[in-house]
Design goal:
Bound molecules: uridine-5'-diphosphate
Number of strands: 13
Distance between the termini: 27 Å
Order of helices and strands: EEEEEHEEEHEEHHEEEHH
Helix content: 25-40%
Structural class: alpha+beta
Number of helices: 6
Oligomer: single chain
Strand content: 25-35%
Length: 243
């Protein structure tokens, strides 16, 4: 019998976490809710929950096949993903291939400027503080992660960048930047957590340079539902063709 939802552990901006009857396994339930600017802007994106669950499940399985450990166990239903219970490291790792979003404002950099090699930044995961930019020294000083864990997080993030840049390129999209979260599993191993979806990355259409991600929602560009659906369709066809 497949694992069932038990108690609600916590409700986040786009997902709800539930315990299951199996220790060390929890369920991520994907909602249609969308937020931006530290939840100052709120809305819903039609069918985002099922789309993000599908996209993230496909990408996590792809990453696993290519040597990146993730918390993914299985996709249970349209909106539910069974994952390993982790101790989340309160650091968001952002990888940037081209300038967009906060870095443009912060450092007066022109949107679209390429970064070679990719730029890695860290943010402290705190809604109350608005996820401030931090450095490696903060992470080590405050013991959010030790130096070995930090090296693993950076190494894995750059591997994810190489792998997924290639996948998105094959479906006509450019991976501009993305945010990853990591956690420790029951054996203390650092594994990729959370999700990989159009909510947490920037994807520009290679032909038109149009954003195909949450920037459509953030900036009221229209066709938000359609963009999420389009990315999911292209990825589904890509992975089906590979089988
Ligand atoms: N991001 C995210 N969650 C956050 C902050 C950023 O998923 O709390 C993602 C965002 O979608 C983008 C990348 O991380 O793909 C870099 O975001 P940035 O620092 O430019 O901030 P933003 O412009 O999203 O405020």
């Amino acid at each position: 019998m497949s694992p069932q939802r038990q108690q609600q552990i916590r409700e986040g901006k786009s997902k709800i976490l539930y315990s299951t009857d199996t220790p060390h396994q929890i369920i991520q339930f994907f909602k249609d809710d969308a937020t931006a600017f530290n939840a100052l802007k709120k809305g819903t994106i039609k069918n985002k929950g099922p789309i993000n669950n599908k996209v993230s499940s496909a990408l996590f399985q792809y990453l696993e096949r290519n040597g990146i450990s993730t918390h993914f166990i299985s996709q249970l239903s349209e909106r539910e993903m069974l994952v390993k219970k982790l101790e989340i490291i309160p650091v968001e790792v952002v990888v940037r291939n081209k300038a967009a979003g906060s870095i443009c404002k912060r450092l007066a950099i022109e949107k679209g400027q390429p970064f070679h090699p990719a730029l890695v930044e860290f943010f402290y995961k705190s809604d109350a503080l608005g996820d401030p930019l931090i450095s490696e020294t903060h992470i080590l000083h405050f013991k959010w992660a030790n130096s070995k864990e930090l090296s693993t997080m950076v190494e894995k993030s750059l591997q994810v960048n190489e792998l997924l840049t290639a996948v998105f390129k094959d479906i006509g999209l450019e991976l501009i930047d993305f945010k990853l979260e990591f956690g420790r599993d029951s054996q203390g191993q650092v594994v990729l957590a959370d999700e990989f979806t159009a909510d947490g990355c920037r994807l520009w259409d290679l032909k038109t340079q149009e954003p195909m991600d949450k920037d459509r929602f953030r900036q009221d560009l229209g066709n938000v539902d359609e963009a999420y659906f389009e990315v999911s369709q292209r990825l589904t066809h890509y992975f089906e063709a590979k089988q």
